[in-house]
Design brief:
The complex is a heterodimer. Chain A is mostly helical. Chain A is built from ten helices and no strands. Chain B has two domains: 222 residues, P-loop containing nucleotide triphosphate hydrolases (Rossmann fold); 80 residues, 2-Layer Sandwich (Alpha-Beta Plaits). Chain B contains ten helices and 13 strands. In chain B, helix 2 packs across helix 3 and helix 3 packs across helix 4. At the A-B interface, helix 1 and helix 4 of A face helix 2 of B.
């Protein structure tokens, strides 16, 4: 008789992947979603709708809406909202020393980062993609709306993966992320074609550029590639987070 | 109890852990079987680091740890058999006690997480139907919630890091009774504490850590005897230090005496109780006033230092 034979029946159960992933996802949603965060992201989204309303009076409202949605929406609203929640998803658990309650469980290590990415997408995608699409509609550029919705949603996925990983790998991840958004995703993206191809925003803008009669700044990438690159970045971020989570000492 | 259940549940061999130049745990070896074992040591002795390594939360810099024969760091499956009550007071603030404990039950894939959470909360004397969120709980109640999440999956190995902190005397007694019961049922229960009196009530087997090293291991009564026999240093302030020192040395009550200024006197004795009995009569005989008597090294850290130096 081995020692393991003495395990009580309750502790000998096999983990169920969907159940544990669901439990982690629900937990992270509850810990991530706070009133200040929601109000902040809603305010960012509301401002984009307002920009769409103003674009309606432009000589070329479709082009004006496209520029507002890509420059402000994809350049700032989407990455900043994803940054705010993504870095906090697991980063807050580390800072509050709560990870111990999740790490010591018979749950595959990839599930917590996956739940964090999913929870971030769940909150950020509707709160940013829908207002951006509404912004296009408010400008009278209905033909942009679907492309904007798709571009913003995929961009949220990519940024969520990236920032969840940053929350595990970096101290002060929110500040590093802010620097990344401002300096890389915006300043460096406009600096040269060479750096632009390595920014997520340029891939997202390329999807918006598929809409007719618009010229989207930094939107010169292949849309087919964009549909692959953005989800791939999300998956890569999740994997990077998993690697870190597996190796980390938990306090 | 079968022969298998008497096997060591936790084995640490030559375990060290350092953070840069700081050595938190140094070459510690022990094994623990079923029943309650106390891990005793002052704050900063390395107890929490040791517990974190025992359940896989931290990797040893050197040495090996086995829980139920498996590596808790790399073998996720063995976590099914481990319950941990961590030292930190933080809990998931948006959750109620029931939701928190149920979460643990769900992550352990128990068939009925609700029933398991209810049973665990009742075991620690909390109301499972309480709808308040955890921040509304007192420190003692949160501590009991942490114990509930540690036992909800009925673990074979239960590690508790300072679990009695914040509990009132009655709650402490209840919790100690619970730990003893779990140990008597054949579980391996390791409780860390820096409070000697708590440890005395937990059970007879102890591990003593000090300055990252295992200072002593074995029966608590042996440790008590060592403590009673150890040399004790006492500082005395009196208006006649020379006369008092001479009389105490002559009587054999102290083994050495040092003058410290005009009124100060430091005495070393191997018989603390004898010195306590003799000091006042000797002072009276020599017409000396005792202005202050302060035992040095009488705190727990002093006890641990003594054990390490042995």
């Amino acid at each position: 008789m081995s020692t393991m034979d003495t395990l009580p029946a309750a502790s000998a159960e096999r983990p169920r992947t969907a159940a544990s992933l669901g439990a982690l996802y629900r937990l992270l949603l509850r810990t991530q979603v706070t009133v200040p965060r929601l109000l902040g992201i809603v305010a960012l989204g509301a401002l984009s709708v307002l920009l769409g309303v103003f674009a309606r009076w432009d000589d070329d409202p479709v082009q004006a809406a496209a520029e507002a949605v890509t420059s402000y929406g994809l350049g700032f609203v989407v990455p900043l909202a994803a940054l705010w929640l993504g870095t906090a998803a697991i980063g807050d658990l580390v800072e509050d020393r709560l990870l111990v309650y999740l790490w010591l469980k018979p749950v595959p290590r990839w599930q917590l980062p996956a739940a964090a990415v999913l929870a971030t997408i769940t909150v950020v995608a509707p709160l940013t993609a829908l207002p951006l699409a509404a912004s296009a509609l408010a400008a009278g550029a209905g033909e942009l709306a679907v492309a904007v919705l798709l571009a913003a949603s995929l961009a949220v996925c990519a940024y969520a993966g990236l920032f969840v990983a940053a929350g595990l790998w970096l101290r002060r991840a929110a500040w590093w992320g802010l620097a990344f958004v401002l300096l890389w995703e915006n300043a460096a993206a406009y600096a040269s074609e060479g750096t632009a191809r390595f920014t997520l925003t340029s891939w997202a803008r390329s999807i918006v550029a598929t809409a007719p009669w618009v010229d989207v700044p930094l939107g010169g990438r292949s849309v087919v590639a964009a549909l692959f690159v953005l989800p791939a970045v999300a998956v890569a971020g999740g994997l990077a987070a998993t690697v870190r989570y597996r190796r980390a000492d938990v306090d | 109890m079968s022969a298998a259940t008497r096997e060591p549940r936790i084995v640490a061999e030559g375990v060290s852990r350092w953070f840069g130049t700081l050595v938190a745990v140094s070459d510690v070896s022990f094994d623990i079987g079923p029943g309650v074992t106390a891990l005793l040591g002052p704050n900063g002795a390395g107890k929490s680091t040791m517990l974190r390594m025992l359940c896989g939360l931290a990797r040893p810099s050197r040495g090996t740890i086995r829980v139920l024969g498996r590596d808790p760091r790399s073998d996720v499956g063995v976590t099914r058999s481990i319950g941990l009550v961590p030292q930190q007071g933080s809990v998931f603030e948006p959750l109620t006690a029931r939701e928190f404990v149920r979460l643990t039950a769900a992550l352990h894939a128990l068939r009925d997480p609700d029933a398991a959470a209810t049973a665990a909360l009742e075991t620690v004397g909390l109301d499972p139907s309480d709808t308040r969120r955890l921040p509304a709980y007192s420190k003692g109640m949160r501590q009991r919630v942490k114990v509930a999440q540690g036992i909800v999956h009925d673990p074979v190995v239960l590690l508790l890091d300072e679990p009695l902190t914040g509990l009132d005397p009655r709650q402490r007694a209840d919790m100690i009774a619970l730990f003893r019961r779990l140990g008597a049922e054949g579980r391996c229960v390791l409780v860390s504490s820096h409070v000697l009196d708590e440890v005395e009530r937990l059970g007879s087997r102890i591990l003593v850590m000090s300055q990252g090293r295992l200072a002593a291991a074995g029966d608590f009564r042996e440790l008590r005897a060592l403590m009673d026999d150890r040399p004790l240093r006492v500082r005395v302030r009196t208006d006649r230090p020379r006369e008092l020192a001479g009389a105490l040395l002559e009587a054999g009550t102290v083994v050495s005496a040092r003058l410290d200024g005009d009124e100060g006197l430091e005495l070393d004795t191997n018989d603390a109780k004898g010195l306590a009995r003799a000091l006042a009569p000797v002072a009276r005989d020599r017409d000396a006033s005792l202005l202050e008597v302060v035992p040095l090294d009488a705190d727990l850290e002093g006890v641990f230092r003594y054990l390490v130096q042995r």
